[in-house]
Amino acid sequence: MAAFSVPPVEVLLSKRVQEMVLHGEEPLGPYICRSGKDVGENEDIMSTSPVPIIDLNRLCSSKISDKEREEELEKLRSALSSWGCFQGIGHGISASFLDKIRQVSKEFFKQPIEEKNKYAKTVIDFKVMELTLFRNTVSPLIGLIVSSSMCSLKIEDSIISGHKCQYHSDWAFQLHKLISEYFAYSFNVDSIIERPEKMKMVTEITSKAMAKSLNLEENCFLEQFGKQAQLAARFNYYSPCQRPDLVLGLKPHADGTGYTIILQDDVGLQVLKDGKWYPKDPTALLVLMGDQMEIMSNGIFNSPVHRVLSNLKKDRVSVAMFYTPEVGKEIGPEDGLVNGDKAKIYKRVKDYAETHWKFYQRGMRALHTAHV
């Protein structure tokens, strides 16, 4: 790929991706992350998705037999060891509510540029974040970031951070109310719990099931995440792209989270396994392991590389929920996974997400920094 000069941050922020698409402009150099030669016959892309399917209901319901539950736990362990992800069903979140989330996401990004710019990052915001990202490649997506404390509502091009809410219109206030409902509702799965007063979150069910699949005490991973574990949602918008042979919606990377739960409206995300790219079924929730879960499982679970393709004709949205250990909490391999048969692969680390971010900006993984 030919070298290019990176425009100043002020230039890059002067025109958002959607504006470039509306005016039929060619992508800027920093957005180009493919040579065009790795597309088609030279790139191994599978048309169907064999990503394992896990029924979360079978992992927690008292109405199924112990044998059925053990079978599902074994499927979970196999999925996370080989794929590092699974497609979750039986999560108790209604299809109509997930459709509503997709719809309101699209409606937000269809607002006039002037309206969205009221929540956009400023040049100062970017410079404070030490924008080394532009020394490599940037992703042509726009994201709405919301934290679990309900205190962030910002539009940005590929940087995640928190900001206090500033409502510039009644429309934005209504959107924020819906997103608040999403946090409260989408991770509370009372429909798959026999007693509604004991509502559990998808993250709790998943974390406990992962521990049990490894014959560990069920709360061990939850304890590593901590009582103040971070939960943040990113509402992503992918514009149509005139050059999908040159531009990816999101470049190949692994997450620095504990794990991520992803909702899509159409095919676009791909997971890399054994040198091949596999699509995800857009109708299921994708639960994807991050580097910190690989560390906590002492390398048994895999943090997979994944990417998002651009599309010539369609725009798309997705919602990624990032579940990360609380700030300042040290994590490391569970003691029960370190023995004579399995040596300790990773050391204990603190605030790994920050380390991951620094390497991500340079197009690199950070897991080696946690190796023993």
Automatic annotation (TrEMBL):
<keyword id="KW-0847">Vitamin C</keyword>
<dbReference type="Pfam" id="PF14226">
    <property type="entry name" value="DIOX_N"/>
</dbReference>
<dbReference type="InterPro" id="IPR044861">
    <property type="entry name" value="IPNS-like_FE2OG_OXY"/>
</dbReference>
<dbReference type="GO" id="GO:0031418">
    <property type="term" value="F:L-ascorbic acid binding"/>
</dbReference>
<dbReference type="InterPro" id="IPR027443">
    <property type="entry name" value="IPNS-like_sf"/>
</dbReference>
<feature type="domain" description="Fe2OG dioxygenase">
    <location>
        <begin position="228"/>
        <end position="325"/>
    </location>
</feature>
<keyword id="KW-0560">Oxidoreductase</keyword>
<dbReference type="GO" id="GO:0002238">
    <property type="term" value="P:response to molecule of fungal origin"/>
</dbReference>
<dbReference type="InterPro" id="IPR026992">
    <property type="entry name" value="DIOX_N"/>
</dbReference>
<dbReference type="InterPro" id="IPR050295">
    <property type="entry name" value="Plant_2OG-oxidoreductases"/>
</dbReference>
<dbReference type="GO" id="GO:0009805">
    <property type="term" value="P:coumarin biosynthetic process"/>
</dbReference>
<dbReference type="GO" id="GO:0046872">
    <property type="term" value="F:metal ion binding"/>
</dbReference>
<dbReference type="Pfam" id="PF03171">
    <property type="entry name" value="2OG-FeII_Oxy"/>
</dbReference>
<keyword id="KW-0479">Metal-binding</keyword>
<dbReference type="GO" id="GO:0016706">
    <property type="term" value="F:2-oxoglutarate-dependent dioxygenase activity"/>
</dbReference>
<dbReference type="InterPro" id="IPR005123">
    <property type="entry name" value="Oxoglu/Fe-dep_dioxygenase_dom"/>
</dbReference>
<protein>
    <recommendedName>
        <fullName>Fe2OG dioxygenase domain-containing protein</fullName>
    </recommendedName>
</protein>
<comment type="similarity">
    <text>Belongs to the iron/ascorbate-dependent oxidoreductase family.</text>
</comment>
<keyword id="KW-0408">Iron</keyword>
